[in-house]
Amino acid sequence: MSPIELLSKPKPTTSPLETFVACAHQMLDPATPEQVRRAVEPRLLAQLPSLRALGVFELFELRDPGLRAWLTDELDGLAIASPPPCPDLLPEQT
């Protein structure tokens, strides 16, 4: 898929994982123009909450050290911005 197709024809049936992988490939491709890279970055970042909720980052490790470090920082920022889960409000049964 060309960078233009990726940006101009988003498919509503595309899963977060498919979008993430396509955007990551664009980010890592040295031939990707800077303006395309800047346009792809928010789409890639938008997939992080869904992928984290699915447990993707517990199952797989990104091989590119730069991308891995950047996304780790972004995921850490999401964890800080997200409120902690609510404790169980039901009383313990004895």
Structural overview:
Helix 2 packs antiparallel against helix 3 (34-46). The protein has helices at 3-8, 16-28, 34-46, 48-54, 56-59, 65-81. It has a domain at 3-7 and 15-71. The protein is mainly alpha-helical and 94 residues long. It contains six helices and no strands. The chain is globular and about 30 Å long. The mean pLDDT is 83.
Provide the succession of SSEs. Answer: HHHHHH
Which of globular, elongated, flat, extended, rod-shaped describes the shape? globular
Beta-strand content: under 5%
Low-confidence stretches: none
Quote the average pLDDT. Answer: 83
Rg, Å, rounded:
17 Å
Distance between the termini: 59 Å
Largest sheet: none
Estimate percent helicity. Answer: 55-70%
Instruction: Count helical runs.
Output: 6
State the total count of DSSP E strands. 0
Helix/strand structural class: mainly alpha
Q: Can you give keywords for this protein?
A:
single chain; 94 residues; mainly alpha; 64% helix; globular
Topology:
Blueprint: H1 3-8, H2 16-28, H3 34-46, H4 48-54, H5 56-59, H6 65-81
Helix pairs in contact: 2-3
Sum this structure up briefly:
Helix content is 64%, strand content 0%.
